Protein: HAD-IA family hydrolase
Amino acid sequence: MQKPVELIIFDWDGTLFDSVGQIVASLQFAAQQFEQPLTDDAAKSIIGLGLPEVAQILFPKVPELHDDILKCYGDHYIEHSKDDQWFAGVAEMLQDLDAQNIKLAVATGKSRKGLDRVLGQTKSRDLFAVTRAASETKSKPNPLMLSEILQYTGVQADRAIMVGDTSYDLEMAKNIAMPRVGVSYGVHSVEVLKSFKPLSIAHDIAALHHFLNTQVDA
Structure:
């Protein structure tokens, strides 16, 4: 018999938070300021990674500009994302899971400063037992942030689920044999997500909420 889940760890951008479009727009803006070529697909593909990794992948020929490009990106994103919020239904899903005494956590490619800002923006800090940002640990798909969350909560990997919209999320979980769920409404395709053998792929928040409830009640 499958053990019931005790801990659900969520990616942030593209999984809980409707921010992918603005991230791409801000990366494009920063690239243009420094006359660096960048397609929308390339900008979208790296969402979920830590910012240093983003710069290395998108702008490998100009390492001397990485700090300036990332600052430009960050300034533009903060200025233009003040109205970004969770996907519809996320607040209700998280509150329902919390009411069932399920521990909730966040594992994100954001910086700690950026994560703290959006936790405040969504008034959700108290919903999560622990949060980890890429700036304070290893970037996905290294599983260190998941290991740190497990250590903090005292939950075993097989009693947790990682939920994310990218290969980085699912590969990170697979690297420590943690069950995982993909969502198709974010960044990476269903075909890419399937390659990491998720328990399920949810196509909207309602389907994700329903599936997680089946795991909690297992």
Observations:
- The chain has two domains: 7-18+85-216, 20-80.
- The first strand starts at residue 7 and ends at 10.
